[in-house]
Amino acid sequence: MFAKILVALDISDHSKEVFNKALSLAQKYEAELHLIHVLSAEEETSPIPIPVNLDEVYPAMGNELTIELWQEQWDKFEKRGLDLLQARNEEAREAGVQSSFEQVLGSPGKTICKTAKEQGTDVIVVGHRGRWGLSEILLGSVSNYVFHHSPCSVLVVPTPDL
């Protein structure tokens, strides 16, 4: 039924549950697992984007120092993403599942759907944070975007407290 499973991970507590659901599917169907983390300012744990003209707002800060500090934070964010992917990839392999991973920069929903199409994915496993109503309209929802634009089936794993 499923030969290729794409699992979208972020740096959150819920990410482990999303991975576990994808791993159990991969084991059940003897499917390949591909893990993806999309680097984006939209992710809750990403560094806050800095305005281009920050020195006009806060002259004492200076743009160079601010950009340097932001770059350090972004590098740490990138490393946390890679560490997560490597750990989950190893976990999948230890469970006997063929697994690969990638970390890319982009808009999460669009990037996940594009990757699924390029790889011939049968199902995407993605988490849902629990944004509903106005907050979902204003802030968006990766799972909602993927659900409506995916080239394949989508399994949405809700947070446990929903």
UniProtKB/TrEMBL annotation:
Protein's UniProt keywords contain Cell division: no
Primary location recorded for the protein, binned into one broad class: cytoplasm
The organism's place on the tree of life at top rank: Bacteria
Subcellular location: Cytoplasm
InterPro entries the record matches: Rossmann-like_a/b/a_fold, Universal_stress_UspA, UspA
Pfam family, one: Usp
GO CC terms in record: cytoplasm
Keyword Transferase among UniProt keywords: no
SUPFAM superfamilies (UniProt xref): Adenine nucleotide alpha hydrolases-like (SSF52402)
Domain UspA: 1-158
Sorted UniProt keywords: Cytoplasm
UniProt record similarity statement: Belongs to the universal stress protein A family.
Name the UniProt record assigns to this protein: Universal stress protein
The organism of origin for this protein: Woronichinia naegeliana WA131
